[in-house]
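Box S2. Input/output pair 1.
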Amino acid sequence: MSKGVNAVVELATIAALFGATVFCTISSLSKQPYDLVEIRFCPPSANGIKSKQQKNLDRQYCSVPRFVLREEWDMRGLFGSRIPEREDVQFKRLLPTDNPNQHWALTGTAVSLAAISLAIYTRNSSLQSKYYSWLEETKTTNFELWQDSKSQRDLKTVATQINTQFKADIYSAVDSQNRVEAGLISTERLAQEQQMQDNLGLTQYELMIAEFRRKIAEEELAKARAEKEKEKVLNAKDSKVAKESNKLELEEQYRWIYKLLKLPFRVLSGEQGSGKSTLERLMIRLLKEDGWYVVIINPETNPDVWSGVKVLADVEEITEFFKAFPETIRSRQQHARNLKIDEDDYLDTLEDKQGLDGKVAVFLMEANTYEVHGVEPVLWADFLKQSLTNIRKWGYTVCLTAHSDNQTSVASKLKGFSAMIDDAPRVDCVAKAGENGEATSSGKALLKMKGIRDKEPLEVDLYNYPRSKKFDSESATSTSKKSSRTTPAATSGDWYEEMQEWVNEIGTPSSVNVKAKWESLTGHTLNSEGLRELMKHLGL
């Protein structure tokens, strides 16, 4: 079927549907679209049916027709009906609708309109498809014509160039022949010029090839650099991942150190060069970061190599400390009894050691040399007794360092406390192990723990300790809890005496210098109120 016939059929269909729509719409028209009932109101007279009054009522009321819907008449007298069932209401006749097929006619109108819409949509889609196909066909035909014309133009251009070059060569050869015949140039000279032109053409060709090779070399160089940068980035990522993995491994290794720091008493033992001193310095640094005041008792150390800690190296200072320690414990006990705070705050105070002159960590280093330097064994044995019993809740923690071969001699001075000190939490530094297990001056220390949850030997790299303290949630919680409270001002008499001596030596220091000196001396941070009290106490 041709395109014209299709168009005629589509238009005829739309016209027929339009005619059907008009016919159905006209057919649905009606003067009386509903069934009606004619009724009369004929009220009876009290004087009788045949009386004159009855005839007057019939002329006045019963002669007037009334019309109601058939549905209302069928419901008369029922609930919701507007026509009561009375004797004066009389049925006259039924008036049916004058067009019973109007509903079908309206349905035909709707169907015809829907069919017209569908036919128009189909016609429009068909036209769009045909127009798109025609447009694409036109573009393809025009493109082919353009390509054919362009090929012809290019061919004509090449032919013209060849013809021109051919004519130029002929004219050049004739000119050269005429110049030779006229004696203007020799045959040898003409051959030399031709050779020079040939060499120039060859040189230009080689130069062009060299330029292409240079560009290829630049591309290969850029590619090599990109590969190198890519490899560098990948290696950096791998190195970063390895570093993070090593850090996590270190953090796992050092979790148990925080268990040691929370113990009131512990023993570090091991042979010379096994890592005891390194572990001590690590524990001291962690305690200082947590706000502890650290006291080191070591007759064989140089106080100048320690910063931020109290070093007792003189025998008299050590003896005085051991003698004053029981009185310090009693003073703290009495101070705690005098705290006028509720029970919860009291427990928090004991936990964080606030109001008890701060937290103090005592390190007994080189304990086997005390007697050699003149320290009375009874004094520091009594100190160890108190350390093993009731100092924890008064803000003290003690760490005893001894060689494994003289542990028994240390415990023997305690008169019955040998078993207690042997059962105390302890870390035995066995050896420093290198990568192949050999003893070395640097590397990892093999530590055996006793009295701590971790029972197995642990190989720890004490020489690459990470700076971060956030190894477990418990430590982070205690740190945040401590930082949220006000910093307790230290009230140790020795610290005030040293501060006073320092002020007397330098004259009148500024508040910044006083605060820095106090922090370096005690390890505590002063707030503004504590700094004012300290300045007032020092007379500044």
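Box S3. Input/output pair 2.
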Amino acid sequence: MTSLARRDVLKCLPVVAGAAVTGTALTGTAAARAVPSRADARPAADAGFPQPESRRADPDTGRLVTGLTVAFTELAVPGAGSVLTRTYEGSVPGPTLRVRPGETLDITQVNALPPNAEARLAGHEDMNVPHRFNTFNLHTHGMHVDPSGEADNVFRAFEPADAPGMTTAYRSVVDVPQDHPAGTFWYHPHLHGSTASQLLSGMAGVLVVEGDVDEVPEIAAAKEVVVCVSELKLSGGRVPDLTSHGVWDDITSTFLVNGAKNPVLTIAPGEIQRWRIVNAGALTAHFLSVAGQEVHQIACDGVTFMKPVAATGVTLPMGGRVDLLVRGGRPGTYKVTGGGPSQHLLTLVVTGAPRKMSLPAALPGRPTELPEPTRTRRLIFRSYERVFPGAFPNAYRILGDGETPPADARAGRDDSAWGRLSADYVNQRVRLGEVEEWTIVNDSHAHSHHPFHLHTNHFLLTAVDNRRLATPVWHDTVAVPPNGSITFRLRAEDFTGRSMLHCHQLQHGDEGMMQIVEYVR
């Protein structure tokens, strides 16, 4: 979202069902690279600034047929040396996947990770204790697509093979609707219990839907720069798994941009570049500051604005995305910072012959209005400290409307089931086409950083701390202020089936701050 004052906003069905195969099966890399780019005429980022590999749909078939192999990879990380971590396709981030409305993602995912350790699987009757760190699935974060079957189904489980050195393969087929918004999205694993550990290993990639906004002349003339910010927790040459609550507390996060530490991007004075920025971290939000440059935001969470909005910086919760138009200022070297002035993400060098480029006056955005709601809901994000024995003593709960009931109605508030994710309990049933108004309250006095994320449908943020926004903003992920609230309107459309809402501080999500949403007709 744009940077505004607080009064406005703070702002499983596998292909081979458990079968082991030798090798790494289809990767799809050669086929994907062979497809001619429909964006070849678009100026690219300068060669010195790293960009993830791009894979796009075949224009003749309308299908992006590719593979993603997940395996432990030795990465050279500046300042940390050689690090063993889980990756997509051997890199952090994984390849950028590009489709257009009406096309299809057809992805074979190969699990080349070793078997889950039996000790980590034993005793996990409580699903909200992190576990199964070598099992994953696929979430197309922010996409308005089918949440069931082989599509964006986060209830699937892509298990590793039973024996070391073997692999398993699973297929995801995601049809992108003809009216899907063009914008910046991303993909990552979303198996409950292992998501935080895998994201902090760098398992993430950018997903771009190309369309109408890219054809606006002023945007088509701008260099497109993918900026994927990864957060890694590195210790002793590896990323420790979440085997106890405080395992990451004393490890300083390492932030990489497109897999590099503080890469250098160049821009000419007066030149306009289009930055697609993704916060692919699990634990840390960013307030992005681009010093010395003129910045306009043109999209939030994959939804285009009606016109560019001037910004001095942007707030980016975990999982959030922004599209910016950045105009080069006076020649010099500038820092682009994240969580604070000392968190240096990349260096921007303004150099070269001055250029004259224009901003678009209007954009093919989504109108920021919905009818009056016919139903309201109130959800409360609340954490309790030191209520359970063992390695995970804290309880991360979602209370209020639809809260998970205690396993024993006579139990006190420490009951392990109360307010935490239950595999068999649908917390929210939402009817397609009905406009609802939701209020999300952050009532946690400790561990209070709770970004709210809803799968499958965007929602229209209308108020923060009960103060109306001058212009509502479409989101799929938004930070809920500590001891505060957000209010939004939701009209679910098109797709029925089970989906999720949760805290996108992913350690909180893995420990139970998550609910099941069922979209019904």
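Caption for Box S3: The helical segments are 29-34, 118-121, 195-199, 217-220, 506-510. Residues 82 and 292 are 35 Å apart (CA to CA).
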